[in-house]
């Protein structure tokens, strides 16, 4: 669907390439859920989504990439028709990269697992670098033409991720700043395979949080960053001398390409770069007894440079007086047409870097031997020292008319240096304000920083007062030299484009200045909000015929000012295109300014409604990717949405407790506003016949409305409300009575209560509760759905926070099955049964679900097979709602604060194929056992299983035993406990009833025994998904205990015994004594296999002797229960215990 660019020109976690042409083709491979893309994405996930904004800005969030042709390459030339065909890139949602193609369609390659925090684009718009924050943070460089990631840097800043990133003008280097309290700045050569930065340094916390960084376009060895209070200038030195000189020269345009070589002019960059580093040249005499310098070192900056030609000649090229060139050697000679020529073999380039190294050597030779042609015979590099004192010596041995000399190039490898010049209100006796962005000037050594006071800080190199032959080295010599008032309004964006300095401010104005900060022109619009980013088109502009009315020109008409079209993104979720030859700003998109939490799909048409906290309600045609209608509610934000089953009405619940019933087409109110809730509406649901609709709110109340006829048209009126829960309500659900067509209403809360209401008996202001059932003992139910009629019995499906899905009989509310649900990092937050499709078997249904940050599918019937489910990351900051299309082909998710709606295409064939590959029958369950089918755990299970048969027949019997593959149901608890799973009495009853009544509805008979295969399934589905951790035991002690003198949470011995007998599943005194004597090793050692006997006498003395008066969590786990814990926890019991106490156990 159309992309909605966020309020801050970004959305968290993805990039967006927005182009004006559609790429043809489709993906051949696709996962079960895939975001749909109209066109050929080079990834398996395909998306046709829209983005709705973001809470947190991505630095340099919106960039214009230039439009592409159908082959994926960039297009040149002029615009087509009335609209410029351009391309935008923006960080959108979660961990993916979006590309908007043609009529607002998206390319969505996935990459990051966290929210994308910053991005940057190379000068040629080919490479896009993104970075994120959070665990396992990544830096990814993408090819913008194809959307394919070409380089991924792992563990760049493992602590907190990246807060700012920039790419150099030559696209070779990346600069990143970490997001931690102590920020780390790194320089990366991203084309290198190494995972280590070229250089790095740590910043002091008093510099503030540096959240913006940019390279000097004239020198990749320089960059600048700023926080709100401090600007920092950086200078980095590479161990590859050639690369650094190369970058400096190329940035200063001292390189002119030629056939077979290049002409190296006398560049300002080389000299300034050498003066900024600790370079020195010393001439040594070979004939001296020791290498003693003949003259003081000569700084290279004092050398007189001439135009030197570095020529890569073939061996057949004639030269005068050259010597054979071998690896590590270079030859210098004179030719008739050019007196000074360097022949540089490729081996030498690989060894020493680029030809600039030799150019620098040649200049030194020319300086010392200006009249005689020098012949350089050897150049070697040697590293002396290590750490901060490392120096690289480049030694050049040459011959000429003078005695032999050795030439040494010395470079102090200082790594990454930085300078943090001070600037305060006292510096210029004027208010500075907070810094926003910084840039380097385009034609001098200055740098500029915009401030919230509407001023520009001018930074420049300040020479020391003491005379010196060498120029001061950046960055320590950068100082604030001017504070230029530009305007009264805060500057939010500062850019350098071509020969202009461009600013954007909080009033939505874009101003252009020349190099002397003289205003050239201004673009403004009354409805443009604070600007967050500006990006210019790659297409050159046409000469203007007239000055646009939206701009104010400040230059003479004889010198027309021509600027390229550009894109603005604002903090109020708007993107605008400014055509500099037109009179109006063109709005590209405008979206929600606050969280998007509500979504609903039309039951009969390809429509989806989306609501946000800012009161914006939009309806989209998701097949045509077209926005149909919208309405803004200024009183409150939209919290939930629901269509009625016929699709005539759309109900909206608001944060102020009000409910609106809207016409589904026009979004106009169909009846008066309802406001009977005291808190925000969280759920809305219609009955199957639209006679009722009900709402749930944050005050734990359920409110029911009934349909009435008014003037021949349907409307609703308030029936009754009830505070039926004491914890948040997770679901409300209408159903149909089994013996009639009457609706039934249920609600499920975190208080573990499933409440059914008697609608027929309810009257005005009196809502009657028909049943109230506690459906969980310890787990918290999170969602509810009607299970499809796949068998004779009817069920209600729930999912809880322990990764379990449960089936309850719709009439008796008895738990009929407990099943292992999807385990993808967090429990299921919401489930929805997909409508049957024409291509699927009517008896084969599917379920869509969301977890905290993922969306997935599950094959029904649920049986605990993990291969029957799949999940994909969608919103790393959390999924707020889920909806499915009327035909079951699409699933929609919204991400709350990331303001993003995603449309996922459902591929059921891929899910079925994955389930088939996982194996059939018991194979998937064998793999869930420790060691699998051939492991020791399975062999122990078989031994216990057959031992239970012996117990059931009697150990001492002399009768002939009948070997069986089954055991009685009464033996299930013993075998479960023998395998390390200790269920409560209620769970034991649920397990036995699950097997006992498994065939009752079909045959009318109860099952009395279970075989090994069914027992394994029962064990897998009922045992805890991840075992019991020491953390859970600690949490229990924090609730039940108190702080002792040492600050430990403890429980008094008497209180513990009392709690065991009076709370939860009560234990009798005899049961408690029996357990304690067994646990403390005082049970009589018997040789028989019959149930043990014990003597209760002396139990009190044993308790006082073996159990301390104050019990900590560690003592309870290790000394009483005898459970193993990790060694670090034994050494320091005050730590927060995280390791597993034991496998396959539950809290």
Descriptive key words:
single chain; 1147 residues; mainly beta; 5-stranded mixed beta sheet; 5-stranded antiparallel beta sheet; 74 strands; globular; disordered N terminus; disordered C terminus
Produce the secondary structure layout.
Layout: E1 15-18, E2 33-35, E3 50-51, E4 62-64, E5 88-91, E6 98-101, E7 105-107, E8 116-121, E9 127-132, E10 138-143, E11 148-154, E12 162-167, E13 173-178, E14 184-189, E15 199-202, E16 212-216, E17 219-226, E18 231-236, H1 241-251, E19 255-258, E20 261-264, H2 268-275, E21 279-285, E22 308-311, E23 331-333, E24 341-343, H3 346-352, H4 356-368, E25 375-384, E26 391-399, E27 405-412, E28 416-419, E29 435-440, E30 447-451, E31 455-461, E32 478-485, E33 491-497, E34 500-505, E35 510-513, E36 519-523, E37 531-536, E38 551-553, E39 566-570, E40 574-578, E41 585-590, E42 596-601, E43 607-612, E44 616-621, E45 626-632, E46 638-643, E47 649-654, E48 659-663, E49 681-686, E50 692-697, E51 702-710, E52 713-722, E53 729-736, E54 743-749, E55 753-763, E56 766-774, E57 781-786, E58 795-800, E59 804-809, E60 815-820, E61 830-833, E62 846-850, E63 854-859, E64 869-873, E65 881-884, E66 890-894, E67 900-906, H5 908-917, H6 923-926, H7 936-953, E68 966-968, H8 972-978, H9 985-996, H10 1000-1003, E69 1009-1011, H11 1012-1022, ...
Parallel strand pairs: 1-6, 22-24
Antiparallel strand pairs: 1-5, 2-67, 3-67, 4-5, 6-7, 8-9, 9-10, 10-11, 12-13, 13-14, 14-15, 16-17, 17-18, 18-28, 19-20, 20-22, 21-27, 23-24, 25-26, 26-27, 29-30, 30-31, 31-32, 33-34, 34-35, 35-36, 36-38, 37-39, 39-40, 40-41, 42-43, 43-44, 44-45, 46-47, 47-48, 49-50, 50-51, 51-52, 53-54, 54-55, ...
């Amino acid at each position: 669907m159309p992309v909605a660019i966020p309020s801050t020109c970004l959305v968290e976690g993805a990039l967006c390439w927005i182009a004006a042409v559609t790429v043809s083709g489709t993906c051949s491979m696709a996962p079960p859920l895939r975001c749909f893309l109209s066109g050929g994405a080079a990834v398996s996930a395909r998306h046709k989504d829209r983005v709705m904004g973001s809470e947190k800005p991505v630095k340099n969030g919106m960039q214009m990439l230039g439009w592409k042709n159908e082959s994926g390459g960039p297009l040149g030339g002029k615009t087509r028709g009335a609209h410029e065909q351009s391309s935008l890139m923006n960080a959108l949602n979660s961990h993916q990269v979006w590309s908007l193609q043609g009529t607002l369609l998206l390319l969505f390659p996935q990459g990051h697992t966290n929210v994308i925090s910053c991005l940057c684009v190379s000068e040629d718009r080919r490479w896009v670098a993104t970075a994120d924050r959070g665990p396992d943070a990544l830096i990814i460089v993408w090819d913008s033409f194809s959307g394919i990631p070409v380089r991924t840097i792992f563990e760049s800043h493992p602590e907190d991720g990246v807060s700012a990133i920039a790419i150099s003008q030559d696209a070779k280097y990346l600069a990143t700043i970490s997001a931690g309290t102590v920020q780390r700045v790194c320089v990366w050569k991203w084309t290198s395979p190494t995972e280590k930065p070229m250089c790095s340094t740590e910043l002091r916390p008093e510099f503030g949080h540096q959240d913006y960084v940019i390279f000097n376009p004239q020198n990749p060895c320089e960059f600048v960053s700023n926080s709100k209070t401090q600007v920092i200038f950086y200078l980095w030195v590479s161990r590859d001398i050639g690369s650094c000189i190369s970058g400096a020269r190329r940035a200063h345009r001292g390189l002119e390409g030629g056939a077979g070589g290049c002409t190296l002019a006398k560049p300002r960059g080389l000299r300034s770069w050498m003066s900024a580093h600790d370079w020195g040249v010393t001439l040594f005499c070979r004939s001296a007894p020791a290498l003693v310098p003949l003259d003081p070192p000569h700084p290279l900056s004092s050398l007189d440079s001439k135009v030197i030609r570095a020529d890569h000649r073939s061996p057949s090229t004639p030269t005068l007086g050259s010597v054979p060139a071998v690896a590590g050697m270079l030859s210098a000679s004179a030719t008739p047409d050019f007196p000074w020529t360097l022949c540089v073999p490729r081996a030498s380039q690989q060894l020493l870097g680029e030809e600039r190294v030799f150019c620098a050597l040649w200049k030194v030779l020319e300086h010392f031997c200006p009249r005689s042609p020098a012949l350089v015979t050897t150049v070697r590099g040697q590293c002396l020292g290590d750490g901060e004192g490392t120096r690289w010596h480049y030694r050049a041995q040459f011959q000429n008319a003078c005695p032999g000399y050795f030439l040494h190039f010395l470079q102090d490898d200082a790594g990454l240096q930085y300078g943090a010049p001070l600037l305060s209100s006292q510096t210029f006796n004027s208010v500075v304000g907070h810094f926003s962005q910084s840039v380097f000037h385009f034609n001098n050594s200055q740098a500029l920083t915009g401030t919230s006071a509407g001023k520009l800080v001018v930074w420049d190199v300040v020479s020391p007062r003491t005379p010196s032959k060498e120029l001061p080295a950046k960055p320590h010599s950068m100082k604030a030299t001017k504070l230029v008032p530009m305007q009264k309004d805060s500057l939010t964006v500062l850019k350098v484009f071509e020969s202009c300095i461009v600013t954007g401010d909080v009033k939505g104005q874009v101003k252009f200045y020349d190099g002397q900060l003289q205003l050239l022109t201004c673009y403004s619009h009354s409805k443009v909000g604070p600007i967050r980013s500006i990006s210019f088109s790659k297409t050159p502009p046409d000469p203007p015929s007239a000055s646009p009315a939206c701009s104010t020109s400040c230059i003479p008409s004889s010198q027309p000012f021509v600027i390229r079209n550009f894109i603005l993104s604002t903090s109020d979720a708007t993107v605008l295109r400014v055509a500099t030859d037109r009179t109006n700003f063109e709005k590209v998109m405008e979206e929600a300014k606050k969280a998007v939490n509500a979504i609903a799909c039309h039951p009969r048409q390809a429509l989806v409604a989306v609501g946000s906290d800012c009161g914006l309600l939009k309806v989209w045609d998701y097949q045509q990717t077209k926005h149909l209608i919208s309405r803004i509610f200024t009183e409150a934000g939209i919290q939930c949405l629901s269509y009625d089953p016929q699709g005539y009405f759309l109900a909206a619940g608001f944060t102020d407790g009000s409910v609106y019933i809207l016409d589904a087409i026009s979004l106009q109110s169909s009846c008066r506003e309802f406001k009977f809730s005291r808190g925000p509406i969280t759920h809305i649901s219609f009955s199957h016949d639209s006679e009722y609709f009900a709402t749930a709110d944050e005050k734990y109340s359920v409110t029911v409305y009934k349909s009435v006829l008014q003037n021949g048209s349907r409307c609703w009126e308030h029936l009754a409300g009830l505070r039926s829960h004491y914890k948040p309500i997770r679901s409300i659900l209408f159903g149909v009575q089994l013996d009639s067509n009457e609706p039934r209403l249920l609600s499920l809360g975190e208080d573990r209560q499933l409440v059914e209401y008697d609608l027929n008996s309810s009257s005005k202001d009196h809502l009657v509760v028909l049943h109230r059932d506690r459906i969980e003992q310890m787990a918290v139910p999170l969602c509810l759905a009607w299970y499809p009629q796949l068998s004779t019995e009817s069920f209600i499906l729930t999912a809880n926070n322990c990764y379990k899905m449960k089936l309850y009989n719709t009439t008796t509310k008895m738990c009929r099955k407990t099943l292992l649900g999807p385990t993808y990092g967090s429990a299921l937050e919401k489930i929805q049964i997909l409508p049957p499709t024409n291509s699927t078997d009517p008896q084969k249904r599917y379920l869509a679900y969301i977890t905290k940050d993922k969306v997935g599918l599950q094959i029904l019937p649920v049986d605990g097979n993990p291969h029957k489910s799949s999940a994909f990351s969608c919103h790393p900051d959390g999924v707020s709602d889920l909806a499915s299309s009327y035909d079951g082909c699409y699933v929609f998710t919204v991400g709350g604060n990331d303001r993003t709606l995603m449309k996922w295409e459902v591929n059921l064939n891929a899910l079925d194929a994955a389930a088939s590959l996982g194996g059939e029958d018991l194979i998937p369950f064998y793999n869930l056992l420790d060691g699998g089918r051939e492991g020791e755990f399975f062999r122990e299970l078989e031994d216990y299983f057959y031992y239970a048969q012996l117990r059931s027949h009697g150990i001492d019997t002399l009768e002939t035993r009948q070997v069986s593959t089954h055991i009685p149901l009464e033996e299930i608890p013993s075998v479960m406990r023998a395998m390390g799973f200790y269920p409560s009495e209620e769970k034991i009853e649920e397990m036995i009833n699950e097997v006992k009544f498994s065939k009752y509805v079909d045959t009318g008979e109860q099952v009395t025994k279970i075989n090994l295969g069914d027992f394994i399934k029962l064990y897998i589905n009922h045992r805890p998904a991840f075992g019991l951790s020491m953390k859970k035991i600690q949490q229990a002690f924090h609730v039940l205990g108190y702080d002792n003198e040492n600050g430990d949470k403890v429980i008094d011995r008497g209180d513990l015994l009392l709690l065991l007998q009076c709370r939860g599943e009560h234990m009798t005194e005899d049961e408690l004594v029996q357990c304690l004597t067994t646990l403390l090793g005082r049970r009589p050692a018997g040789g028989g296999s019959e149930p043990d006997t014990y003597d209760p006498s002396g139990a009190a003395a044993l308790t006082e002797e073996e159990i301390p008066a104050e019990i900590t969590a560690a003592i309870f786990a290790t000394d009483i229960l005898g459970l193993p814990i990790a060694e670090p926890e034994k050494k320091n019991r005050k730590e927060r215990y995280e390791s597993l106490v034991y496998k396959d156990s539950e809290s």
